[in-house]
């Protein structure tokens, strides 16, 4: 690669910033895609791989006694410090990395060279993993009030919108075109979320080009149509997520906000989320606070306060809450916009969706939400994440804030999310890493022009395959007590500093034991035991079948049964007696019919299997905790002796657990 | 005195109870000598039983003839009672005020409480110094149990039995006691089995401005050092504060006289400052402005989290000296009854896995707080909402529990107990039906005949039915020393005692135990 001045430097020090004791010496390699450090240690050959696309900036520090330091700040908040013995090496690496981390063309990004060992078909298939059409039909669309307009199929009306857009059936093409001409960048009001139960919707757009007095009949008709598509309500909210002052300033430039006098039955509301520049500076300050080395509590809290970061997170959450309550509690539709409608609007719509719809609190649901509200609706990932060298002023942590809002919600509702914190952090990492093609470019059109789907891989199947890592063991899917709507508190003290993200690489700052991990381990263990159990059930069933044939050999039956019970059963298995019995009863005929090879009954069998395993899951968990509590009360022997000896008499087992 | 004299209106119907995060309840309000009771007289609805002793302050408001009493509790709960009828409301308010500020200990509820359960294991007999000494004897023969304080004349705040170096006779102890604030001469707090190092605690030495010394005191603590080894004196005060103490007859160990010891000064606040911190913290939590800036600046101004950090850091330091440096440690501040105990007890939690079990933690509280003479009654007489003139109230014990919670959060699988256990201890320290936290020292407790006249908290807690609530389902005994992070990024605000949420954590606990 022409940009690599120095492919390999020996005797480089990798400094551990938390503890000088863990500093190690090794060899530094620069490749086209990664910076790689290989530690010299004889046993643990420590390797550190850093993607160039994750590098935020590279700084040379003043030479010290030990050599020439180079600091690499990454977009995932990792900070790496190397010390070079030679100034020239340090400089060469600095120059090379500075160039490598600032690609000029999309084609230089890692996703275009990333080539895992998968076939073409499989890669293409990876892009079909999520289907937005399916998502809209999950919401209940199209229906008699809303349909897809073909108007943007060629991206002619709005080149930053997706090709398929939902609009009220009642609006005509000229109305859409007229409305789009009256909106910044042509981003006319279109549907983002539809609430099946009460027909209320969240729609999104950019600001109207109203200036001080301009109006547009089509735009007014558009809003009227949206309002009318929610038959139950007599008005709709128009939420401008900007501070009022900013919105008013925009009027001077011929933009602005809706005049309540011109639009029928709208209630207009400012929410006051700051713009991307304020957010960028705020996060910069937050990062500085997070990187303080052993600060006092006062320094930390003052820094946190001065960064204003949590205040911004709070304002986004409040906006989301306002909208979700309007939709769920008042049954009123909401149109959300900011200036261009791709930053604050995306944040607020997606936060509201997470609050409203339990689906977005599942793994798959969150992926879909990213694809829908962020990727398809043209959040400018390349600009905001600084994928390519360009305007530094375009960079802003808009997406970080959305992820953080979800994290804050997870803190308040530890059982409401199927995914865990690691999932959010992993997504964060991949948004910036350019490892996969999903978050490249600024719009659907750009991605199409660049053939992203043909040339890169999609992140979602990859995350899905690793879903075990991302599961929240406390997840309880049933949130029916409030019809799914989350009502977070927005009191200031409910917003916490997200240590796992901002100090992700400072291992010493995190709990040394993880509740999550130990719960996951228990879940895994019990799952394994379940599988074993299922195996034994099958064997039992077969044996039973044989016994049935040889009924007259009564004694033999008893013997072998006894043998089964005393033989290879793991002691902990005895903790799930009821399960065993129901499995035993249900399992036998199934296996039998399978052996018969009848297709119909095989289906029944599958179904039966499924119910069985979900039953198993429940008692699974019970036994898991039974284990724990008996641990904690200091008892060494886990299984109850009785249940081993006499399974049949122990049908009420789980109740005791 | 008859309580009835103070109760003008014993019963009011149609009272509405408002509690944060809970549905309102309408019912009958009853006042008894020790309780404020609200009963809806329906099945399956929760009743309110509030000890008058738990009430920190009340506020009255009137709208027409509807009176409202806002009751602010020492355990930081705030409840509101809407009482129809102005006279009833005024009567109730004045009764509550009188009943909640009774000064005589012997009128407290524990002296009237009769348990509805059978006491199987008497908590008063559970943790006696003789038993602890037997454990020690099995590990080392360097120590003896001294009866020098049998009649509490050498040190009124110490228990009658004290563990001291074997080679130091009682006479020397008396001399050392006269050289230490309040007679609190150095005694054994913890023996680290792994390397035989010890932690001792004391009060400040009375060096005064002219640098008094006491050979017996020097001999006493030197007796705990191995030949050629140095020890550490951890003074919980800053050097400046320690210097100032000289003017009032106190002071710190001079290098010249304690050549084998290295002195380290830390900066744990004195108890009156801690009390201000609690008041500010509670104010911050109750701030209605909903402004993030105000919250963070008020939180910072309360210094609460700084105090947590400083106490934890000092405890970690003590533990580090013992476990990593292989040195013995002497901890003291001024009186040796507050910050000293925070440090010695937390260090033991870090070092000794036994302290992380329920029994072990109870024993720790008994040893390092109750018998060591932490003045619970003085410290917990009022809390953050009191309008009374502050005397010697301070959330010293709450801060200790907060620090334990911080370690628990960082090592969620290493403790046999859960957050509820800590909350329970906090509540009972401020108001309880049990006698455990009454009095300020062993001597006072004996005088009050607590063990005969009241029930011990441990008698109740250790019943299997109660214990269940306090067990940590994730507990796996961990025999290692656990080193918590004390970085500000790692320390959290302990919200549950501050009544800020409907306990999301407990929600999670219950999920864990249900799944």
UniProtKB/TrEMBL annotation, chain A:
Database matches in Pfam families: Myotub-related (PF06602), PH-GRAM_MTMR6-like (PF21098)
Keywords assigned by UniProt, alphabetized: Coiled coil, Cytoplasm, Hydrolase, Lipid metabolism
Residue ranges occupied by any Tyrosine specific protein phosphatases domain in the UniProt entry: 307-351
Myotubularin phosphatase domain: residues covered: 126-502
Residue sites binding substrate per the record: 275-276, 338-344
Cellular component per GO, a single term: cytoplasm
Coiled-coil portions: 512-546
Family affiliation: Belongs to the protein-tyrosine phosphatase family. Non-receptor class myotubularin subfamily.
Protein name per UniProt: Myotubularin related protein 7a
Source organism (scientific name): Cyprinus carpio carpio
UniProtKB/TrEMBL annotation, chain B:
Record GO terms (molecular function): protein phosphatase binding
SUPFAM superfamilies: (Phosphotyrosine protein) phosphatases II, PH domain-like
One Pfam family of this chain: Myotub-related
One term under GO cellular component: cytosol
Ranges for domain Myotubularin phosphatase: 123-498
Location of the protein in the cell: Cell projection, Ruffle membrane; Cytoplasm, Perinuclear region; Endoplasmic reticulum
Membrane topology note: Peripheral membrane protein
Any Gene Ontology biological process: negative regulation of autophagy
Keyword terms of this UniProt record: Acetylation, Cell membrane, Cell projection, Coiled coil, Cytoplasm, Endoplasmic reticulum, Membrane
Matching InterPro entries: Myotubularin, Myotubularin-like_Pase_dom, PH-GRAM_MTMR6-9, PH-like_dom_sf, Prot-tyrosine_phosphatase-like
Family listed: Belongs to the protein-tyrosine phosphatase family. Non-receptor class myotubularin subfamily.
UniProt xrefs under PANTHER family: MYOTUBULARIN-RELATED (PTHR10807), MYOTUBULARIN-RELATED PROTEIN 9 (PTHR10807:SF56)
Protein name as annotated: Myotubularin-related protein 9
Organism: Cyprinus carpio carpio
């Amino acid at each position: 690669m022409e940009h690599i001045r120095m492919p390999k430097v020996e005797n480089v020090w990798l400094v551990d910033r938390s503890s000088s004791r863990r500093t190690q010496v090794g060899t530094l390699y620069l490749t086209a895609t990664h910076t790689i450090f290989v530690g010299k240690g004889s046993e643990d050959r420590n390797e550190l791989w850093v993607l160039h696309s994750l590098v935020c900036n590279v700084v040379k520090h003043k030479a010290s006694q030990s050599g020439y330091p180079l600091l690499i700040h990454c977009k995932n908040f990792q900070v790496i410090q190397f010390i070079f013995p030679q100034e020239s090496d340090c400089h060469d690496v600095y120059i090379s990395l500075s160039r490598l981390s600032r690609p000029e063309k999309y084609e230089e990004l890692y996703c275009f060279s990333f080539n895992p060992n998968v076939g073409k078909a499989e890669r293409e298939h990876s892009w079909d993993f999520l289907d937005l059409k399916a998502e809209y039909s999950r919401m209940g669309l199209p229906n008699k009030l809303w349909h897809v307009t073909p108007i943007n199929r060629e991206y002619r009306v709005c080149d930053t919108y997706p090709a398929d857009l939902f609009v009220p059936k009642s609006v005509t093409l000229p109305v859409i075109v007229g409305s789009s001409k009256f909106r910044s960048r042509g981003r006319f009001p279109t549907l983002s979320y539809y609430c099946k139960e009460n027909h209320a919707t969240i729609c999104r757009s950019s600001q109207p080009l109203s200036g001080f007095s301009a109006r547009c009949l089509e735009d007014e008709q558009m809003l009227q149509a949206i309002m009318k598509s929610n038959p139950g309500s007599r008005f709709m909210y128009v939420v401008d997520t900007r501070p009022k002052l900013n919105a008013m300033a925009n009027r001077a430039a011929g933009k602005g906000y809706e005049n309540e006098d011109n639009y029928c039955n709208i209630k207009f509301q400012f929410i006051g989320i700051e713009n991307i520049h304020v957010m960028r500076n705020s996060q910069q300050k937050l990062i500085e606070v997070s990187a303080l080395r052993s600060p006092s509590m006062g320094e930390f809290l003052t820094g946190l306060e001065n960064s204003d970061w949590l205040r911004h997170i709070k304002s986004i959450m409040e906006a989301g809450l306002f909208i979700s309550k309007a939709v769920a509690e008042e049954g009123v539709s909401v149109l959300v916009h900011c200036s261009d409608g791709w930053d604050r609007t995306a944040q607020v719509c997606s936060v509201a969706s997470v609050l409203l719809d339990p689906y977005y609190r599942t793994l798959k649901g969150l992926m879909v939400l990213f694809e829908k509200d962020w990727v398809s609706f043209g959040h400018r990932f390349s600009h905001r994440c600084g994928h390519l060298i360009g305007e530094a002023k375009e960079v802003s942590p808009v997406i970080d804030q959305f992820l953080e809002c979800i994290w804050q919600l997870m803190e308040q509702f530890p059982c409401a999310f199927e995914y865990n914190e690691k999932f959010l952090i992993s997504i964060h990492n991949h948004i910036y890493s350019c490892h996969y093609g999903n978050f490249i470019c600024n719009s659907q059109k750009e991605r199409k022009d660049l053939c992203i789907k043909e040339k890169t891989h999609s992140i979602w199947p990859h995350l899905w395959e690793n879903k075990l890592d991302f599961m929240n063991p406390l997840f309880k899917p049933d949130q029916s007590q409030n019809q799914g709507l989350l009502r977070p508190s927005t009191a200031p003290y409910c917003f916490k500093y997200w240590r796992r993200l901002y100090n992700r690489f400072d291992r010493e700052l995190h709990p040394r034991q993880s509740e999550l991990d130990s719960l996951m381990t228990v879940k895994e263990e019990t799952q394994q035991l379940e599988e074993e159990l299922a195996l034994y059930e099958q064997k039992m069933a077969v044996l039973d079948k044989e016994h049935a044939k040889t009924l007259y050999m009564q004694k033999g039956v008893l013997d072998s049964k006894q043998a089964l019970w005393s033989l290879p059963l793991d002691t902990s298995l005895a903790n799930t007696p009821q399960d065993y019995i129901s499995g035993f009863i249900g399992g036998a005929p199934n296996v039998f019919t399978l052996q018969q090879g009848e297709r119909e009954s095989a289906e029944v069998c599958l179904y039966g299997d499924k119910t069985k395993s979900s039953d198993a899951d429940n008692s699974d968990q019970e036994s898991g905790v039974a284990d724990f509590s008996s641990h904690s009360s200091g008892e060494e022997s886990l299984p109850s002796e009785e249940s081993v000896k006499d399974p049949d008499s122990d049908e009420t087992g789980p109740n005791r657990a | 005195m008859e309580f009835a004299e103070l109760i003008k209106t014993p019963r009011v119907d149609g009272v509405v109870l408002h509690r944060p995060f809970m549905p309102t309840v309408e019912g009958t309000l009853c006042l008894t000598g020790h309780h404020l009771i609200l009963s809806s007289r329906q099945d399956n609805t929760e009743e309110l039983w509030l000890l008058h002793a738990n009430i920190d302050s009340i506020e009255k408001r009137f709208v027409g003839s509807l009176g409202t009493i806002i009751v602010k509790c020492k355990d930081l709960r705030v409840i509101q009672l809407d009482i129809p009828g102005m006279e009833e409301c005024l009567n109730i308010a004045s009764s509550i005020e009188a009943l909640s500020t009774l000064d005589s200990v012997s009128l407290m509820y524990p002296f009237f409480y009769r348990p509805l359960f059978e006491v199987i294991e008497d908590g008063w007999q559970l943790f006696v110094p003789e038993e602890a000494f037997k454990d020690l004897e099995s590990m080392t023969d360097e120590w003896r149990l001294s009866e020098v304080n049998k009649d509490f004349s050498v040190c009124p705040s110490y228990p009658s039995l004290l563990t001291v170096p074997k080679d130091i006779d009682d006479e020397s102890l008396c001399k050392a006691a006269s050289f230490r604030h309040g007679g609190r001469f150095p005694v054994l707090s913890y023996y680290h089995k792994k390397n035989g190092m010890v932690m001792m605690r004391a009060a400040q030495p009375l060096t005064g401005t002219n640098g008094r010394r006491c050979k017996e005191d020097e001999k006493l603590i030197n007796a705990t050092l191995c030949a050629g080894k140095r020890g550490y004196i951890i003074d919980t005060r800053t050097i400046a504060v320690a210097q100032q103490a000289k003017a009032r007859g106190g002071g710190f160990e001079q290098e010249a006289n304690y050549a084998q010891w290295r002195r380290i000064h830390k900066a744990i606040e004195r108890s009156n400052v801690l009390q201000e911190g609690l008041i500010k913290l509670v104010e911050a939590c109750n701030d209605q402005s909903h402004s993030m800036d105000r919250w963070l600046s008020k939180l910072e101004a309360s210094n609460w989290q700084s105090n947590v950090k400083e106490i934890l850091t000092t405890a970690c330091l003590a533990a580090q000296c013992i476990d990593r440096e292989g040195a013995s440690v002497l901890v003291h501040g001024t009186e040796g009854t507050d910050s000293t105990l925070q440090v010695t007890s937390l260090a033991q939690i870090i070092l000794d896995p036994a302290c992380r079990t329920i029994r072990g933690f109870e024993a720790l509280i008994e040893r390092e707080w109750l018998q060591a003479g932490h003045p619970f009654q003085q410290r917990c007489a009022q809390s953050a909402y009191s309008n009374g003139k502050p005397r010697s109230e301070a959330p010293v014990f709450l801060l200790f529990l907060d620090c334990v919670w911080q370690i628990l959060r960082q090592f969620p699988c290493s403790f046999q107990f859960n957050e509820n256990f800590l909350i329970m201890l906090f509540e009972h320290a401020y108001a309880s039906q049990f006698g455990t936290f009454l009095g300020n020292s062993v001597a006072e407790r004996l005088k009050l005949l607590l063990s005969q006249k009241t029930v011990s908290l441990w008698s109740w807690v250790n019943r299997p039915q109660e214990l269940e609530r306090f067990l940590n389902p994730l507990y796996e005994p961990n025999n290692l020393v656990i080193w918590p992070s004390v970085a500000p990024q790692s320390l959290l605000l302990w919200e549950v005692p501050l009544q800020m949420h409907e306990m999301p954590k407990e929600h999670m606990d219950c999920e864990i135990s249900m799944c």
